[in-house]
Amino acid sequence: MARGGGKSGSLKDKLDGNELDLSLCGLSEVPVRELAALPKATVLDLSCNSLVSLPSDFCSLTHLVKLDLSKNRLQQLPVDFGRLVSLQHLDLLNNRLVTLPVSFAQLKLSLHHSPVEILSRLLGTPSSLLVFHSFYSWENQNLKWLDLKDNPLDPVLAKVAGDCLDEKQCKQAAVRVLQHMKVIQSEQDRERQRKLQAEREMEKKREAEQRAREAQERELRKREKAEEKERRRREYDAQRAAKQEMEKKTKKETVQSRKLASSSRPPQPARHKHSWSRSVLRALLLVLLCILCTLAVCKLTELQHQPLCVSVNTLYEDVVAAVQNHKTLQNMLQQNSQQ
């Protein structure tokens, strides 16, 4: 970095013990990389420049103890401005700031005070009206000096900061602003926790609703399955009943047709008797045919002299004689009956 005097892009440095004081002028942006390379540069004067904003990596300069940003055009500070935890002196005079980042509360205010001071600040009552003693302990407080004059601050923040016309007022401004920002941070933390809790509750509610919907869907599927099973059972019972009814009807029709058939046919025993008589007649005819054949063989063939044929011929002649005698007797009886 260049050294020298003047107001156009010049830098003035001064070694004070082990600390290095830097003063940069004529800047439109902050050379953060170069400043980070100088960890002993604990005092930085960036006043009377044309700075509109600070880069986000400006908050990496955690070695800064005193920072002068007065008489610039700053409209806001980086969100992580609270990372400058070593900062004790901050001059923001004559800028265009409206609010401060919530991380401003991380500049490690550790203030010990009486309950009267707390009550006075909460109620907005001047502590001088309350006859109590309030005291401050600065040994654990980093930011000890703050100047926010000549900025279009939010009315609440402007009232909290007050004036910075002397050393005491600037120190009180640092205390009050840090307290105010801690309250805002606490409120935002509570709001964030509330939103987180609300989101968790909403998520639980959505999960519960999802489980309820899944349970309803399962119950609906179960009911539909039971209804389908019942419908199939009824269809099966109906088909079975229809089949049984058809079988009964068919059986009944078969019985009736058999009855009609049996009533239209002659009695079964007579048919059997008629068949038996035919069989007997056929047997007699067969025996007669055999006898005739035997007679023909015994009369007309050379076997007529055989003993069997002799007996057959004798029997035949006896039968013929008996038949003739029977005819003669019938004729006589007929004549007698006619007379």
What is the CATH superfamily label of the domain at 11-111 and 139-181?
Ribonuclease Inhibitor
CATH class of the domain at 11-111 and 139-181: Alpha Beta
Enumerate the spans where pLDDT stays under 50 for 5 or more consecutive residues. Answer: 1-12, 110-119, 125-140
- What would you report as the Rg, rounded to the nearest angstrom? 69 Å
What is the CATH topology of the domain at 11-111 and 139-181?
Leucine-rich repeat, LRR (right-handed beta-alpha superhelix)
Protein name: Leucine rich repeat containing 59
Region (Disordered): 186-275
InterPro entries: Leu-rich_rpt, Leu-rich_rpt_typical-subtyp, LRR_dom_sf, LRR_domain-containing
Pfam families: LRR_8
Which key features would you list for this structure?
Leu-rich_rpt_typical-subtyp, 6 helices, disordered N terminus, Leucine-rich repeat, LRR (right-handed beta-alpha superhelix), about 350 residues, single chain, LRR_dom_sf, about 55% helix, Leucine rich repeat containing 59, alpha/beta, Leu-rich_rpt, six-stranded mixed sheet
Please give a structural write-up:
This protein is an alpha/beta fold. The chain has a domain at 11-111 and 139-181: Leucine-rich repeat, LRR (right-handed beta-alpha superhelix) (Alpha-Beta Horseshoe). Helix content is 54%, strand content 7%. The chain has six helices and six strands. It has helices at 32-36, 115-123, 155-161, 167-264, 268-300, 307-338; strands spanning 11-16, 19-24, 43-45, 66-68, 89-91, 145-147. Strands 1-2-3-4-5-6 form a six-stranded mixed β-sheet. α5 (268-300) crosses α6. The longest helix is centred in the middle third of the chain and has 98 residues, at 167-264. It is rod-shaped, with a radius of gyration of 69 Å.
